[in-house]
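TA notes, week 10

Several of you asked for a full example with nothing omitted. So below is the full record: structure tokens for the whole chain, then the designed sequence directly under it. When grading your own attempts, check the secondary structure regions first.
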């Protein structure tokens, strides 16, 4: 792949760099603190819901609003964060977001009731939603195209690894200290982040000029666009997060939120394309590379968050692993992502993006195929390596997709592009988790009904099997008192096999989706300076 043609950094200027007089790589470290804090928080609370429900004397279903409230508020703020950054000032908006996230984390940790906890989580989601788009905009402006791969790789460590470590860390803190500390640990990190950003991150004059130009003649707020974003993405997130619990369209609430989301999002597209100063710049989708990267980031989010929830769930439900053992399987996968991340940064920009993505998707498909070959007696080492294979491919998806999405865009569009790309990742995660859980439940019911079809006294295999269970339980000849135990054990085996088959079906489905997305990588338009062009 040697012999690059053209200078990939041609036309790039450091006038918009957030590094100022400091080393640009210092900026990556500074903004990664808040990133790790926020991304970790999206996964860390999941394993603590039972403890939260017990501590606050509420039902487990009521406690799930701790997750839903955060996801909804986060979904609303992410798409408009680019516009807010332009209006308020990028550094100022980022520090406001970190401050809001930190204060609301303190409120969450000290919350005496579910209502106050949910209220605090809403503001935590608003603060967290402004972080990632601003951070990616910092990086895109601070590093020239030839170095963006390495910059996004360093930044991507926390984006990919934090959701992996979240369940393990959350479980450890909850079991050994208290669920309050899953929120309180954010406070010192947030304070350190604010101090470092204040002294080390610069607000370049070029951005200030753009902001003054935007505000000249008065601030024009796209109020209708904001309302449509809030309704559309808020209701969509609500539908995805609570659909499985509330029986999807069997629930009038879910039906209503789905209809409102669909109408709002369709109206949003029409309104924003016709508006002169849109709050979400949908015209970015006129760029082929950006549109393809958006679709692939949706898939990345679905794979990352969907599998991170499915695998430990399968380990505990089917294999009988403890929560700690299941979390360790995911953590070993995180090591795979860490190992691959530096190599990803080195190759991004040197090798054609479509080749990197094509290979990464193929490896991801193989990993999912490997998971679909599991049986109920899989040893720990096999399970851990299967997750390791999958995690190795994740950086080769996140980094090239993120870096390639800015190709062909004007620097003034980076903030809006970052916001929309993060919407893709979050929506992909919500769709992946909800769809996987819905398919899992449906297939489990299907397999269970098929397995029990042959369980009747006319089937000699059923009679012999039941007799064997009875002899094992009683330690001798069949006795009538063992009948109930024999049937209970048989039903438990049926449930276990049905669950295993349903997980296999879900992993097969994810594998097929990955294969469908692979051709999109071929459609990416090569940019100047990529290997071989």
């Amino acid at each position: 792949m040697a012999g690059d043609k053209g200078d990939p950094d041609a036309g790039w200027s450091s006038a918009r760099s957030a590094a100022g007089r400091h080393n640009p790589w210092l900026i990556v470290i500074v903004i990664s603190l808040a990133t790790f804090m926020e991304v970790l928080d999206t996964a860390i609370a999941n394993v603590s819901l039972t403890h939260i429900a017990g501590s606050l004397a509420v039902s487990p279903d009521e406690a799930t609003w701790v997750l839903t409230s955060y996801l909804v508020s986060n979904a609303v703020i992410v798409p408009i964060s680019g516009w807010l950054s332009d209006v308020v000032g990028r550094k100022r908006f980022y520090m406001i977001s970190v401050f809001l996230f930190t204060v609301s984390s303190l409120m969450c940790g000290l919350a005496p009731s579910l209502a106050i906890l949910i209220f605090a989580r809403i503001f935590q989601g608003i603060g967290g939603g402004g972080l990632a788009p601003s951070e990616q905009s910092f990086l895109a402006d601070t590093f020239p195209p030839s170095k963006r791969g390495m910059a996004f790789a360093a930044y991507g460590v926390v984006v990919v690894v934090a959701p992996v470590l979240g369940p393990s860390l959350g479980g450890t803190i909850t079991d050994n200290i208290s669920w309050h500390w899953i929120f309180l640990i954010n406070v010192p990190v947030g304070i350190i982040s604010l101090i470092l950003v204040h002294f080390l991150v610069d607000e370049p004059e070029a951005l200030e000029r753009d902001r003054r130009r935007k505000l000249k003649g008065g601030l024009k707020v796209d109020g209708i666009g904001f309302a449509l974003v809030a309704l559309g993405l808020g209701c969509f997130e609500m539908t995805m997060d609570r659909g499985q619990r509330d029986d999807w369209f069997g629930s009038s609430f879910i039906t209503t939120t789905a209809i409102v989301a669909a109408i709002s999002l369709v109206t949003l597209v029409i309104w924003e394309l016709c508006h002169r100063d849109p709050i979400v710049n949908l015209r970015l989708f006129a760029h082929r590379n950006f549109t393809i990267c958006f679709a692939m980031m949706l898939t990345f989010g679905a794979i990352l968050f969907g599998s991170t929830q499915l695998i430990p769930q399968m380990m505990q439900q089917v294999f009988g692993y403890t929560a700690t053992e299941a979390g360790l399987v995911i953590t070993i996968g995180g090591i795979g992502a860490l190992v691959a991340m530096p190599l990803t940064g080195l190759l991004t920009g040197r090798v054609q993006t479509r080749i990197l993505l094509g290979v990464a998707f193929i490896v991801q498909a193989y990993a999912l195929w490997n998971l679909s070959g599991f049986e109920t007696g899989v040893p720990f080492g096999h399970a851990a390596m299967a997750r390791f294979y999958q995690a190795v491919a994740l950086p080769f998806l996140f980094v090239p997709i993120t870096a390639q999405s800015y190709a062909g865009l004007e620097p003034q569009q980076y903030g809006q592009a970052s916001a929309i790309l993060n919407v893709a990742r979050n929506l992909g995660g919500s769709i992946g988790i909800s769809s996987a859980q819905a398919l899992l439940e449906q297939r489990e019911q299907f397999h269970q009904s098929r397995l029990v079809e042959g369980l009747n006294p006319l089937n000699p295999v059923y009679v012999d099997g039941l007799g064997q269970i009875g002899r094992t339980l009683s330690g001798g000849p069949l006795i009538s008192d063992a009948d109930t135990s024999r049937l209970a054990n048989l039903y438990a085996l049926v449930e276990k096999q049905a669950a295993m088959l349903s997980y296999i079906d879900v992993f097969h489905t994810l594998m097929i989706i990955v294969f469908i997305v692979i051709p999109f990588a071929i459609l990416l338009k090569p940019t100047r300076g990529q290997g071989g062009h």
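Residues 223-278 form one domain. Use that as a sanity check on your answer.
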